[in-house]
Amino acid sequence: MSLYDSIVRPILFRLPAETAHEFALRSLSVTLGNESVRELVAQRFQSELFGKLHRFGLEFRNPIGLAAGFDKNGTAAQALSALGFGFIEVGTVTSEPQPGNPRPRIFRLPRDRALINRLGFNNCGAVQVAENVKRGRPDCVLGVNIGKSRRVAIEDAIPDYLATFDAVYEVADYIGVNVSSPNTPNLRELQRADLLSELLNALQERNLVLANRFSLAAPRPLLLKIAPDLNEAEIESIVELALKNDVAGIIATNTTISRDGLQTPREKIDSCGEGGLSGAPLRDRSNQVIALIYRLTGGSLPIVGVGGVFTAEDAWEQIGAGASLIQLYTGFIYEGPSVARRINEGLAAILKRNDFSSLDEAIGCRADRVKDEPQRSQRLAQRNQRTPP
Ligand SMILES: Cc1cc2nc3c(=O)[nH]c(=O)nc-3n(C[C@H](O)[C@H](O)[C@H](O)COP(=O)(O)O)c2cc1C
Q1: Distance from the CA of 277 to the center of ligand 1, in angstroms?
Q2: Nearest in space to 178 (alpha carbons), one of 155, 140, 147
Q3: Phi, psi of 37 (to 5 degrees)
Q4: What phi and psi values does residue 342 have, to the nearest 5 degrees?
Q5: How far is it, in rounded angstroms, from Cα 54 to Cα 303?
Q6: Is 181 considered catalytic here?
Q7: What distances in angstroms separate CA 29 from CA 25, 154, 285, one per listed residue?
Q8: Nearest Cα to 60, choosing from 169, 133, 136, 139?
Q9: Whose CA is nearest to atom 24 of ligand 1?
């Protein structure tokens, strides 16, 4: 049992979830913010077994990234990169600072190895986030995830996204476009074909202008982050639009609004209230979405798999389903700061055991075998007829 399992997690889990999060984030940025300490303990992981990881014009040291939401303000990105992640996605960032929903707004479901959150994009605003990551640039690929401000109506979303895009453009290696958080009212409507098409079009137009202004060799890769609560037809239409609009990849998936199949007693789940569910219960659905996108595109569109990854075996499942990079958030909370190193080491061992000569060779090797449950598709279709996703 690790020190994290035996001592640190039990102490952190006695604190309210958001207090524990703030404490952990501050402790990491204070201790690992110091360059000498960081270099002493850095666990940067690279393996020849992975081969060169070229994804949408960027090179990754390893395939394991920290998902959006952990470091919303980009204050600890540098410290976090020393824990062995191959990439860090900061945000979600909005054009202006905003406080998010009232507390409490993060809840642990330890029996399910899950979290429910309704933070609602609390962040210090795009200009400040750009300053923060400029001051402490991580030693790995940096993504910035952008979202819609709460006060902005859905019909005014485009100028709002563009303002955020402009502010973070220079500092981001890639930009994640979040249209899938369940905690900003109506945000997920932007996954509708007509609205999404307009948004992607506007962002790509601005992308060309800014790439020119900053004399970049190519526009920034845009990745689209989608919800797991979409049915097959909706995913198909999003993928079609993504391809049409030169989206560099899909991040699959965000948290789910479903509460199906949980072990936690119903009263406790109900007492948490609304929010997105993450962690182990999301794993199968994320795998299904990844496999579906992989099959639809014949593997031509890079997929960042996210949802319920705690171990190397979980990451391997997502790679087999079609992901070429992996992210995690809830696994970091439950498994602790060595999770990226352990998953990377485990993945390298799995590749070797299965006689793969590189990670790229394994991507999508099981995509045909990961199928959607028909019942779930039906449920989603019925629900989506009542309310738009
Ligand atoms: C507390 C919390 C906050 C999150 N905030 C964001 C966010 O701001 N933007 C975003 O795109 N995803 C956010 N997510 C979703 C994660 O990035 C990830 O997609 C999801 O949790 C599934 O991965 P996991 O099971 O490894 O946690 C958040 C997740 C959690 C648990």
Answers
A1: 9
A2: 147
A3: -65, -45
A4: -65, -40
A5: 13
A6: yes
A7: 6, 35, 33
A8: 139
A9: 307
Q: Is the CB of 60 under 6 A from ligand 1?
A: no
Task: Return the pLDDT at 44.
Answer: 79
| Angstrom distance (rounded) from CA 247 to CA 165 | 15
State CA 178 to chain mean position distance: 9
Q: Choose one of 258, 329, 334 to mutate for the ligand 1 pocket test, by most ligand atoms within 8 angstroms of C-beta.
A: 329
Q: Is the pLDDT of residue 367 over 70?
A: yes
Tokens representing 117 are 């959150």
Q: With a 6 A CB cut-off, is 178 part of the ligand 1 pocket?
A: yes
Answer whether residue 372 shows pLDDT above 60.
yes
Q: Which residues contact 339 (CB under 8 A, 6 or more apart)?
A: 310, 328, 331, 332
| Atom 3 of ligand 1, residue of closest alpha carbon | 69
> How far apart, in whole angstroms, are the C-alpha atoms of residue 205 and residue 219?
10
Mean pLDDT of the chain: 93
Q: Are 88 and 81 a contacting pair, CB within 8 Å?
A: yes
202 pLDDT above the threshold of 90:
yes
With beta carbons less than 8 A apart as the criterion, state whether 112 and 132 touch.
no
CATH H superfamily, domain 3-386:
Aldolase class I (3.20.20.70)
Q: How confident is the model at residue 381 (pLDDT cuts 50, 70, 90)?
A: low
Instruction: List, for residues 267-306, the tens digit of each pLDDT value.
Output: 999 999 999 999 999 999 999 999 999 999 999 999 999 9
Q: Which residues contact 274 (CB under 8 A, 6 or more apart)?
A: 118, 182, 183, 257
Whole-model pTM over 0.90: yes
Provide the pLDDT for residue 131. 97
The crossing angle, in degrees rounded to 10, of helices 312-321 and 339-353 is: 60
> Considering only CA atoms, which residue is closest to atom 23 of ligand 1?
307
Domain locations along the chain: 3-386
For residue 222, the cross-strand partners are 175
DSSP H helical ranges for the chain: 3, 9-12, 17-31, 35-41, 77-81, 126-135, 157-168, 193-213, 232-244, 266-272, 283-297, 312-321, 330-335, 339-353, 359-362, 374-386
